[in-house]
Amino acid sequence: MSQPTTTTTATNPAEQRRNSNDSETSTVHDTFTINEPIPLQEVASYREQIREQMPPGVLATRTLSINPYPSKHTDLEAVNSRIMTHQSEKRPIMHYVNWDVNDPECPYNWDSKIRWLYTILVACLVVSAAFGSSVITGNINGVVKSFGCTEEVAILQVSLMVFGFMLGPLLWSPLSELFGRKPVYIIALFIYVIFNIPCAVATNIQTVLVCRFFSGFFASCSLTLAGGSISDLFPTETRGNAIAYFAAAPYAGPVLGPIVGGWISVGTGGWRWIYWVNMIFSGVMWILVCFLPETYHPKLLAARAKRMRKETGDPTYVTVEEEFPVPVSELVQANLVRPFIMLATEPILLLMSLYIAVIYALLYAFFFAYPIVFQGVRGFNDGEVGLTFIGVIIGTFFALMVTPIFEKKFRVVVHQKNGKPDPEDRLPGMMFAAPFIPISLFIFGWTSFPWCHWIGGCISGIPFGFGMVIVYYAANNYIIDCFPRYVTSALAAKTLIRSGSGAAFPLFINQMYARLNNQWASTLLAFISIAILPIPFCFYKWGSSIRARSKSAS
């Protein structure tokens, strides 16, 4: 099948944006010609191919149409950057509604203060969900005393919620594409708030564990949609700094959990108030979500098209998504089938997801290793153990101070390569930060002797927090840039592996430290992080050749 051809007949919209102060008079004319019928099953593929050919400055996902019906010729011409006309042999002329250049209703053009406030709020949503997964570690054995269960069963309070993080995105991602971001946020997070109540009033451990799984399932909506919300607000060239805050949230949130949970346990003497406080925190975040505007571009454009149909009485004003809706089968393929296929066939996705998963798992391992060292060896109480995680938080703040430097260097590379950087240009940050992970583990392990000062173990959290945020930030951007056509599937695959490892590690950390002793257990974890350390260096050197042989990568 021949490739669709693209002919640009006017100036680049990005250039128009710089040269014109009147968004109402700026126009662009782009014609896309497809010279043969397109089978229905190939519509999505052609849609993505044309998106890649769209000139910068035009919201590509809103300004194309493909005729999936048998016809010999289809022309799509933009009369201006807002309304597009589509002529088919068997169909009437349709007017496709799109954003104007510098359109004030487009989220890209909202006031920067509003966009950054929105970014901080959705990052806080991620913090809230991640906080809920670890807050119970402030008194993980409280249920042991209340219900007579084993310590291994008590640890499931953490593992089952993280397991819910793994499965939830398979539902929330496609729902957000069908109904927009805000309705999914509101419904899912409200149910998450409610599931904290039976945890707090439970009379048996089974109730706690079941509700913890569903808490994770519904809370994962934040982990799934926050990145999409940020991408709705910032174009690719200015998205890096916002993504850095998002990258810190899934790791800063769990670290806050034991700090807060430990002092709740000390102050109240029980574990139930931990769940009540978590419900209050998540409830406040839910109230804030209710006041957030919708950011999903197709939904905003659909509202514009509906308004134009009402104002003009002309039913031909539609969005591309309204006339060519994404089939449910395509959503199922993207979220339930393709992630597993890509993991099996794409070494870049598999190994980068594995790297992220190991870092995430080490973080959750710390929630049980820290009490072993600081409580078991040094006699700290629950609240004092929680304070030892402050080092990790300090490290994440240092990471947020450094990420703008890497973003600035990346923009220089973008300029040098005429706006077409390679995905591997995202990896220098990861290569710089990767060694900090094993360094932190060696420090933690070999300062855990009773005769060593406790400050050594606390300091070990600083390089860990610094390394994990920058590694995740760079790796996440690398995956997105490598798989632009299948980014939803790639991120779903990454989330599956990351959350699965985070759920599994807590189940054997206590036994591992008991068998190997504190020093060698931490050293074993350090060796694991050293074993995966060459991954970003290898992809920096050979990533382009690997992508050249891939069916999914750019």
Automatic annotation (TrEMBL):
Low complexity bias locations: 1-11
Domain (Major facilitator superfamily (MFS) profile): residue spans on this chain: 118-546
Chief place of localization: membrane
Cleaved signal peptide residues: none
Keywords of this entry: Membrane, Transmembrane, Transmembrane helix, Transport
Entries under InterPro entries matching the protein: MFS, MFS_dom, MFS_trans_sf
Cellular component, GO annotation: fungal-type vacuole membrane; plasma membrane
Mode of membrane association: Multi-pass membrane protein
Subcellular location as annotated: Membrane
Biased amino acid composition, Polar residues: 22-31
Pfam family name, one: MFS_1
TM region positions: 116-141, 153-172, 184-207, 213-230, 242-261, 273-292, 348-373, 385-406, 427-447, 453-475, 496-514, 520-540
GO molecular function per UniProt: spermine transmembrane transporter activity
Protein's UniProt name: Major facilitator superfamily (MFS) profile domain-containing protein
